Amino acid sequence: MKTDMELRKDVEKELKWTPGLNSAAIGVSVKDGVVMLAGHVDSWIEKRSAENAAKRVSGVQAVAEEIEVRVPDDSQRTDEDIARAAEKALAWRFWVPKDRIKVIVDHGWVTLEGEVDRHFQKESAEDAVFFMIGVTGVTNHITVKPKVAPTEVKTKIEAAFNRSAAIDAQRIKVTATGSKVTLNGTVRSWHEQEQAERTAWSAPGVSEVVNNLKVEF
Question: What is the third-level CATH fold of 4-69?
Fold first, then answer.
């Protein structure tokens, strides 16, 4: 088991290792395996990259971050400009039903609302906007309402887990009630936990995933 000091050093190294991330303005503190990130970055994608980097470090129990996005003067954009750019970005994602998604921008913070049929469409809509210059944050309120009825959801998810090299299927119990899927058990890392949830969402007809997986080292 790593000490808090060892974890802090490992997280700092991972932040420096992460491409496109200016780690100099990010402070790291650790208490009882919980990592706190504070400071500021130039973009929303850097903020997300910092959080993901901390999660990748073995031994981290949880991550709390208070990183502020400070958009440089030469990257400042009006809310109207960001909204127009967001609509164009969504239009390029032909698998995302843009006519069912509403974009709201307030001081650079983008909120997405609406309904889609599959979870990957919800994720794709978010991916389309949070890479944009001038965005200070993204809230994804898009709901998933499948048109396809769930069939053999549990079996399909378990089979996908068994095919994955990143997931130890023997440690995960899948429960499916209609379109709702619940995952219980243990995983070896934050990455495995997120991968398991993402895999469950990929099953046709799933409208909700409850991830109760615990990270054990």
Answer: Histidine-containing Protein; Chain: A; (3.30.1340)
What CATH number does the domain located at 153-215 have? 3.30.300.130
Per-residue pLDDT of the chain (217 residues; tens, 9 = 90+): 789 999 999 999 999 999 989 999 999 999 999 999 999 999 999 999 999 999 999 888 889 999 999 999 988 999 999 999 999 999 999 899 989 999 999 999 999 999 999 999 999 999 999 889 999 999 999 999 998 888 889 999 999 999 999 899 999 999 999 899 999 999 988 889 999 999 999 998 999 999 999 988 7
Beta strands in 24-136 (DSSP E): 26-31, 34-41, 62-69, 101-106, 109-116
Global pTM? 0.79
Instruction: Check if the beta carbon of residue 30 is closer than 8 Å to that of residue 7.
Output: yes
